[in-house]
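Reviewer 2 asked us to include a model.

Predict the structure of this chain.
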Amino acid sequence: MENQNSLIGTAMLSTIWEKEKKDTLELVIPFIKYSIGQLISIDERVELGSVVDYLSTNFGFYDMPYSVLQKAFKRLTKKKVLKKENGQYYLRIDLSKECRNVSAQLNNMRKNSADVIDNLNVYLNKKHDSIFKKQISKEEVSAYFVKFLESNGYFIYSKIEKLQEVSPVDNKVFYYIAQFILEEYEGKTLIFSYIENIVKGFLLSHIIYGYVDTDYNEKFKDVYFYLDTTLLLCIFGLKSDEQNKGATQLLDLIRKSNIRARCFEHTYAEIISIIEAYKHNISRGASKSIHTIEFFDNLQYSRSDVERYLLKLEDIFKKNNIEITQVPYLSSDDSCIVRTEDYSKSIGEKELKKFLSIKLNYKKDEALDNDVKSISAISTMRNSKSFTKIEECKAIFVTTNTPLVYCVKEYTGDNDNCAPLLISDMDLTTLLWLKNYKRFSDYPKLKLIENARISMEPTENIKNEFKKKIEQLQAEGVVNEEQAVAYNQLIFRKKEKIMELINADPDNISNIDECDLEKITRDYYNTALNAENTELKKQSKQDNELINSMRRATNERIEQNGKIIYIVLHVILIILISLMLVIPMYRLKPQSDRCGFGDIISFVLGILGLLDLIAPRFRKCNCLIRKIVNKYEMHAKKQEHMRINKN
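Predicted model (structure tokens):
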């Protein structure tokens, strides 16, 4: 996909998917029918090569696999659009009406894509002083936008090297394109919806190219997904927020698809070595290294904090349901004895290592060795057999290294009908997204925002140049060691400010003044201090609310107990008073069987006298009971409140 037509073609592909939700082959058939209708008339022979060229030129579907077209032709034959005679395909019906409908859709997509480029053109030309020092044309803007999408892995590549052809100037433009996308996203504009539609189409095209036989209702059967180091670091939340979100979403999709996730022991060991290196860099001082783990940086982890994290690393794997496994033995019976017939399962590790070292720029031999081990292990688990369906391929290695996927495919010579040994995290997420579309419909938008934010991150070149600048200022005596350590952290903790300061151009780093760094540092620490104070106030408020809530609950419990005590004492008092009344009444009762009116009057007056005598004492006893209960409640509340405050 090398021209602006790719923007139009993929946007239309997304529209077809939104309406139809059909399999990948049905998605591409409208384009193939349109191409045939534009190229030939009824009863004329359909040439495969001409259709491929037309799709590439007019829709940007670069080098469409012949396997996709052949399957599409078979389906069109069943639908009686084409007919097959002597191994050749001929057009059977008039496609002019369908071509007019597709043309109308294309014009609409063309307008939407043009609106995106027009708005981006205006935005970039406002920033032209920071980029090119001159106005740039729409054609240049379109080319940069396509290259921006290429750099984020949305395109299908004819050459692996294209993935690594990103110049410093490109990075500077990508920074502003990413800003444009994020501003449109935050503004919830129509332009962002057009961009999202284009991206959705690119994601769909990836699946069409690589997994044409995909059935969205088919489940994965006994397939293990082995995750690479970078992807695992993101899943555990150790990288930037944007990278972590994408990886977390992939893991969520994996779980909901009932797929089993694993990692090899050497991958686990590589993660430990990365964290150990970070711990070692803390001891040496932050200024000694440009490599970092963002999660540790944000929480300002000390050496002991990192050691504590390492101790619970295995539990983190278990918590995420990721099993750590050994690489399989090449021997058929796991006896470690490799026989001649076992070599057929081998991918050829020495040859693969040599091939990858030439094609890709590995900074460390350990990373190359681990990739070779992982790829070889997947091949061994498959017994070097080819699988047409990814859902049945037994094992596959999931990596964030897209160039590695293309390299291995080139090395093995697998065609488009084979499930690859490796799959990129973006392709896998897209595949699972299509299988779980209703639950994860926002994936393209989230992926676009993730890539936009990542494009605003400092490049390795900028980090290196920034580090050299701090070392230069320290050597000149402009800054001391403590300041150098603080300034080196800015490229991680205040990267947005640094990128704004240098306009995303590493050449501008040499012009940085110590005052600029001091100002950004002060802003950072003031912001951090304010955030800490806000957090403390929030925590204090939450603690007070919790204490008050506990006090209220305690008070209610004690008061309830007080009521019970009051009732019990009150009952006892009534019983005593009743006894005090009954005994005298018995004595006042006339003894004779014959009692006169006078005796009755005397008895009643005696009772009234007793009541008059007891009533004041009853009230005093009642007041005494109330005082006892109140004293108990006050003492109990005081003791409980002291206990709550202490805890």
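The chain has a mean pLDDT of 77. Residues 543 and 549 are 10 Å apart (CA to CA). We have added this to the supplementary material.
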